[in-house]
Amino acid sequence: MSGVIKVLQLQARYNVNASDLAEQVIQGLPAERYEVVTGFLRGRPEAGEPESRAARSVYFGFSQSSLKGLRLRALWRLYRFCRAERFDVVIAHRFKPMNMLMILNLLLKIPACIGVQHGIGDFDRRYRCREARTLLRPNWRVVGVSRAVRDYLLGCGAGFTPGNTLQINNAIDIVRAESLQHAPQQARQALGLAPEAFVFGTIGRLVPVKGHIQLVEAFAMLAGEFPQAQVAIIGEGRSRAELEAAIARHGLQGRVHLLGEKADALQYVRGFDAFVMPSLSEGLPLALLEGMSGHLPVLGSDIDSLRSILEDCGGRIFTSGRPAELAVRLREILALTPQARAEEGARAYEYLCRAHAVEDFRRYYRELIEQMLEVGGE
């Protein structure tokens, strides 16, 4: 295909940050070859918040209610916009943008359409599967952001097959991550953690689905045996009061640290000795990848989105929601020699570089677009 390729990247809501993978797709599309427009169905940046790297951003400003049910007004507005712009490629992230473009492209005939699914469960409803089977056309490809997501898509009965569904792993900018990270003792000093402690660390919002209460309960089972062990949780949210109550109930003040929200929290990961992800549900486990970038042993729950990564990187796995089983895994980490811990962290880091490097991520999307346009132009 000659000339500049016009790409629409459509997202459900505004959420632009340093680790935003939609922004990484843009960086993989050279500006001299691609003109990228980022569209957000809901939300827009507040003053001082980052904007997309795209050549242009469009904030549709739809209300939540206007995107439910038949969504006729929203569909009509989006249709008129796409018809006027004459895009060559559309990349729709998550279920709602993908579903809306599948409907509209029956008329728009955009040559190359890519739906990116970031989690598991969007096609659990039978009517969604029936609709997808009806709307899916040969010019669509569906991307699962991990092995678990791709396997889910292939098995959900929505018409996704090995021929139209592929896996492009979530990724992080490893070079950037390592350049931000403080040395271990510097990170501990910044976080107020004792230099001699053994620290199990995690990063995530303080909300029930992240499973932090499971980590506190598990730690309480072994804290008396390992007086040097501590837990550090970076994040903020509505579960703080519940976590503070559990810490007090178990007498873990000074042992479990709720450190609040930190900008670019990955800069502190080398202040941890091991990275724990006790989530009950997770779509994009980027925090786990950030833990690997610190050359740390990693352990996490057996939910689908984590289990496949932990299996592939040699991490440790426990049954979600079972603090006693998590306590066993914490003991295993504590029993390792410093050399064995370093080797386990090195294996996780090697896997990260092999499977989740952002350079590969950008290239895979570029190659997918080019392949689809070549096939469509034959």
From TrEMBL:
Keywords linked to the UniProt accession: Transferase
Molecular function in Gene Ontology: glycosyltransferase activity
Nucleotide-binding among keywords: no
Membrane in keyword set: no
Location of the Glycosyl transferase family domain: 187-339
Domain Glycosyltransferase subfamily 4-like N-terminal: 24-174
InterPro entries according to UniProt: Glyco_trans_1, Glyco_trans_4-like_N
Domain of life: Bacteria
Protein name listed in UniProt: Glycosyltransferase
Source organism of this protein record: Aquipseudomonas ullengensis
